[in-house]
């Protein structure tokens, strides 16, 4: 028995059954969370560096401080049983900012203790 299939670009049809083939591509759904983390990290890291009175750690350093600060802030807010007073992206940036300030404070405590010893 011979299969009667017709193929067009991106589409296959066999005996009343048709299927559209899609190439695997990087979609906006895959990239947007990464870009959001980078933007949140950058904003939170830069603001925390300004509040803590430092010159910052450079672009990449501030992004890393902000992203780690988001985890610290999330843990801190959860431990205190509270939530951000803002919703959406503003709330995420606020929590990351608070966490980044705490992180910078702890880093300066450790660095200061190391220089004094």
Please outline the helices and strands.
Blueprint: E1 5-8, E2 11-14, E3 17-20, H1 28-51, H2 58-80, H3 88-116
Antiparallel strand pairs: 1-2, 2-3
Helix pairs in contact: 1-2, 1-3, 2-3
Q: Which short descriptors sum up this protein?
A:
three-stranded antiparallel β-sheet, 3 strands, globular, mainly alpha, 117 residues, 3 helices
Task: Give an overview of the whole structure.
This protein is mainly α. It has one domain (28-116). 65% of the residues lie in helices and 10% in strands. The chain is built from 3 helices and 3 strands, in the order E-E-E-H-H-H. The protein has helices at 28-51, 58-80, 88-116, and strands spanning 5-8, 11-14, 17-20. The chain has a 3-stranded antiparallel β-sheet, with no helix packed on it. Helix 1 (28-51) crosses helix 2 (58-80). The radius of gyration is 24 Å and the shape is globular.
């Amino acid at each position: 028995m011979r299969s009667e299939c017709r193929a067009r670009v991106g589409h296959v049809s066999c005996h009343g059954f048709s299927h559209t083939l899609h190439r695997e591509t990087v979609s906006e759904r895959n990239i947007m969370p990464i870009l959001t983390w980078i933007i949140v990290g950058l904003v939170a890291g830069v603001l925390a560096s300004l509040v803590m009175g430092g010159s910052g750690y450079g672009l990449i350093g501030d992004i890393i401080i902000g992203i780690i600060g988001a985890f610290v802030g999330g843990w801190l807010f959860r431990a205190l049983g509270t939530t951000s007073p803002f919703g959406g992206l503003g709330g995420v940036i606020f929590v990351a900012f608070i966490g980044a300030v705490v992180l910078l404070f702890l880093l300066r405590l450790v660095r200061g203790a190391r220089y004094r010893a």
